[in-house]
Specification:
Layout (H helix, E strand, L loop, with lengths): L1 H20 L20 E6 L11 E8 L6 E8 L6 E2 L1 E7 L2 E5 L9 E3 L5 E7 L9 E6 L8 E7 L5
Antiparallel strand pairs: 1-2, 2-3, 3-8, 4-7, 5-6, 5-9, 7-8, 9-10
């Protein structure tokens, strides 16, 4: 009889131990630490215009998001597969690739994108204007300051998910 009681006690302790370790028996998560800007970013995938495919094949990404205060907007651009050492002007514009309605912000805010030895580069700009909440915007990367007519990469910015 004593052996049966011991086995029952052992089984009870084992089940209590398993219940305490059960990963499904936890308090629900009430807050999650994550990037607060993720749902307020405009995003674009940059590609070389079809007229230059075969000559160059640049790709990259761009984002536009709220700045440090409500009167600022931050823009970021990265490219890959570019010529090492290249310096490329870039800007955010109203409209869409191929249908330019003008640059937004001060042209001096956009430092040229500098390409490193691996063919990658990036740049950012802080624009003195409130974060857009609607409209059409795109990012363009130009061949050089001496050849601004040639667009080597462009991408339409998709608005944040609501």
């Amino acid at each position: 009889m004593r052996a049966i009681a011991f086995r029952l006690d052992l089984a009870t302790f084992a089940m209590l131990g398993l219940a305490a370790c059960n990963p499904f028996n936890r308090e629900p998560v009430t807050s999650v630490s994550r990037d607060a800007m993720v749902n307020s970013r405009w995003r674009a995938a940059l590609v070389t215009p079809s007229s230059l495919v075969g000559a160059i094949q640049i790709n990259g990404s761009a984002t536009m998001q709220p700045g440090k205060n409500t009167s600022l907007t931050d823009a970021f651009v990265t490219i890959a597969n570019a010529t090492p050492g290249g310096r490329h002007p870039w800007h955010v514009h109203r409209g869409q690739c191929g249908m330019d309605e003008g640059m937004i912000g001060d042209p001096a805010a956009y430092a040229p994108l500098q390409v490193g030895d691996e063919g990658r580069g990036g740049a950012n700009a802080t624009l003195s204007l409130p974060m857009p909440t609607s409209g059409s915007y795109f990012v363009m990367v130009q061949a050089s300051a001496a050849n601004p007519e040639t667009i080597i990469a462009c991408g339409n910015l998709a608005p944040p998910a609501q």
